[in-house]
Structures are given as structure tokens and as C-alpha cells.
Design goal:
The structure is a homodimer of 188-residue chains. Chain A contains ten helices and no strands. By secondary structure, the first copy, chain A, is mainly α. The N terminus of chain A is likely disordered.
């Protein structure tokens, strides 16, 4: 690709820069923990100028918010196996894989940190949870339409997601398949 | 108290400085979030010299660790009401009051942040959880000795503490008495 072609595809370069910057943020959270780095660290790690980050994201908080939203919304689609039991087991195993994966704890810490940061972070956290709850609710609604008794979305949060989140946040890993299935069994 | 008397009671002054510094840390976590302040900010807020903090704690991480350990160990003693049902309800209500109190979310965020910080933080987090688990275990052991069936300590973590922790970390408050009792009912 020559310079002229590159100039015609600003979207391609822009998307690549965004991906590098997002990965730099995720790496820095994993290595140093949330809050222990600045825009300059992200820029250096991503190989871009500080000014590119300020121009595009305004500052660190907006960037962090975007990273969390992008990572969590990129999660696999909600399962549709034909039974609530199958859906919940698949969903719980999927979440467990995500939060114990290479970037999982970092993203989970960031999601928690967002809710304790400023107004914008809190709003981003609330939006993120609303979107996840909506997806979970459609899974539970499908079960009810098939005539299966289904718990509330908040019960799934309290008794399947919360235990897994807290165990990962506290470093009590791995989450074994038996443990995850046990959470679903107890809920159903 | 004159200067001579003060000089004779270094423990009194030392304890007062420690209390001021601890409170400054808790305030800063509440206002700015974990990681968004340095030793100098703590010193300024507590009205002491930076060097006093470095001399006594070495650095920010040790200080943060000590604050979390002190706050969480200062929690009310484990209840002993004569029945597991009563003990668990009292304990859950106590934890809910602590984590939704003025400094509760800050301390909870710090406990989570510790586990993602360096080796020393992870060890402090693990020690803290071991101590809390030991206390909880004695409550459950007392119930078994009375002939009551009792859940495992990890079930209490997963189904009573984790849902409350996650709701506070995500800003889904207040935790109502009905909600808290519902968690205990479901566990028993």
C-alpha cells in the first residue's frame, strides 16, 4: 500500500490506532493496576503521540470507559440452546472463560473502578450493566415463552455472576466447571 | 498538656498521626478513587510531612494495605445469637451497614484493588480473607456443634457476601433489609 492509498483509507489507520491504544490500556491495567498510569504511558506503549490520544479521546477517563465498553460488548452473543438449563450453563461458562482469560481480570477491575470514578464513569458503568441485563432478560424471556420457570435477571447476577466476579477479583481462581455448574444448579 | 508531658507520650502522638493518615487515605479514596493520589496528597490532607509517612510506612502500598486491614479488622465481632439463622442475619446486616456506610465503598474498592496490585498487596488481601473466613468458620462450627445443619464458609461468601459486594461495587444500592434477609433465606 503506497502513501496515496493509505491517505484514502483514514478509517483503516484510525481503526488500527484505536486497536493499539486499547491493547496498550489493557496491558497497562494488567501490569500496573488501574490508576497507576497516565496518557503518556498509554501513548508510549501504543507507539502513538500523546496528542493523538488527547485529540481523539480527550483524556484518560473517556479512553478507559471506551475500552471497557468495547471489551465487554465484544463478548460472545448470548447462547440459545433451546433450554434455560443449557443457556445458563453455556452463559456461565462463557463469562467464566472471559473473566479468567488473559485480559479478564484487568477488564473486570476496570469495570469496578469505573463505578467509583467520576460521573461519566458511573454513567458508562450503568449503561454497560443495562445492556448486559437486557441481553440476559431476553434469554430468560425466551425460557418463559417456552413454558419453563425462569429466575429474575437480578437473581442470575446475585447467584451466578457475583460469586464468579468476586472470586476473580479476590484472586480465588481457577473457576472449575464443577463450581460453575454448581452455581447454576443452585439457582435453578 | 505541656511539651514535657507530650514528649513522655510518644505513643499518644504516634497513634494520633496514624489515625489522621488513615482517615486521609480513606477520604482520598472516596473522593478520587484508588490510585489517583500520591504520598504527598495523603501528607497534605493529614497535615503531616511527607517524610513522616515514608519513615513510618515506607511507601503508599504498605500504607494502603494497613488501612484496609485496620478498617476491616475493626468490624464488629461475629454475632453469637444462639441460632445460625440469627447469626447469619445479624452478620449479613452488619456487613451491609459497613459496606454502604460513609467509608464502606472506598474500603471495598481498596480491598479489591489490593488483590490486583503487587505481591505485597496480594498477600495482604489473602491474609485479610483468611482471617475473615476463620471468624465465619467458628460461627458455622458453633451451629454444627448445636446440631444445626450449616453451609460451608465459601457458600456464605458466594451467596450472601458476593452479591452484596458486587451490588455496592456497581453502585446498585441501597441494600434493603428484605434483600439481605432474602439472601440468607435462600442460603439456609
Amino acid at each position: 500500500m503506497n502513501e496515496q492509498q493509505r491517505a484514502r483509507r483514514p478509517g483503516g489507520r484510525s481503526a488500527r490506532v484505536a486497536a493499539q491504544v486499547h491493547q496498550a490500556v489493557t496491558d497497562l491495567i494488567g501490569e500496573r493496576g488501574y490508576g497507576n498510569f497516565a496518557v503518556g504511558d498509554v501513548a508510549a506503549r501504543a507507539g502513538v503521540a500523546d496528542s493523538s490520544i488527547y485529540r481523539r479521546w480527550g483524556g484518560l477517563e473517556t479512553l478507559l470507559t471506551e475500552v471497557v465498553l468495547t471489551r465487554l460488548n465484544a463478548q460472545s452473543p448470548m447462547p440459545d440452546t433451546g433450554s434455560l438449563d443449557g443457556d445458563l450453563r453455556t452463559y456461565a461458562a462463557q463469562v467464566a472463560r472471559e473473566i479468567t482469560g488473559p485480559d479478564g481480570p484487568a477488564v473486570l477491575h476496570l469495570a469496578v473502578a469505573l463505578s467509583s470514578s467520576g460521573q461519566q464513569g458511573r454513567q458508562a458503568g450503568a449503561d454497560l450493566r443495562a445492556e448486559r441485563t437486557r441481553q440476559l432478560q431476553s434469554m430468560l424471556d425466551r425460557a418463559r415463552e417456552r413454558g419453563e420457570p425462569a429466575p429474575d435477571a437480578l437473581d442470575v447476577l446475585d447467584h451466578v455472576l457475583a460469586p464468579m466476579y468476586i472470586r476473580v477479583l479476590f484472586g480465588m481462581v481457577p473457576l472449575t466447571p464443577d463450581y460453575i455448574d454448581g452455581l447454576v444448579d443452585r439457582l435453578l
